[in-house]
TrEMBL record:
Domain Xylose isomerase-like TIM barrel: 2-80
Name this polypeptide is given: Sugar phosphate isomerase/epimerase
Isomerase in keyword set: yes
Keywords, sorted A to Z: Isomerase
Source organism of this protein record: Acinetobacter baumannii
Gene Ontology MF terms: isomerase activity
């Protein structure tokens, strides 16, 4: 969701009842004059958005897990 520039915390507010599991990933999105959300065909180093190691990106994990706890999430959080 972050790489699509969606507000993932609001997404949880809207769809929390449908979330049964989620894939834990970190990502960063750095737009520039050549790339945007649809820049996925660029070489990896030139993409505006890319996945990062957990803790190295821009995902607010504290916010995500706090939000899921607020809704009594009992599903899986999968990190590979």
């Amino acid at each position: 969701l972050h790489l699509q520039q969606m507000d993932y915390l609001t997404y949880i507010d809207i769809y929390h009842a449908r979330i049964k599991a989620f894939h834990v990933k970190d990502a960063e999105f750095r737009r520039n004059g050549r790339n945007g959300v649809y820049g996925g065909y660029q070489p990896w180093q030139q993409r505006a958005g890319r996945f990062r190691s957990p803790g190295d990106g821009q995902i607010d994990f504290k916010g995500v897990f706090s939000k899921l706890t607020e809704y009594d999430f009992a599903g899986w959080a999968v990190l590979e």
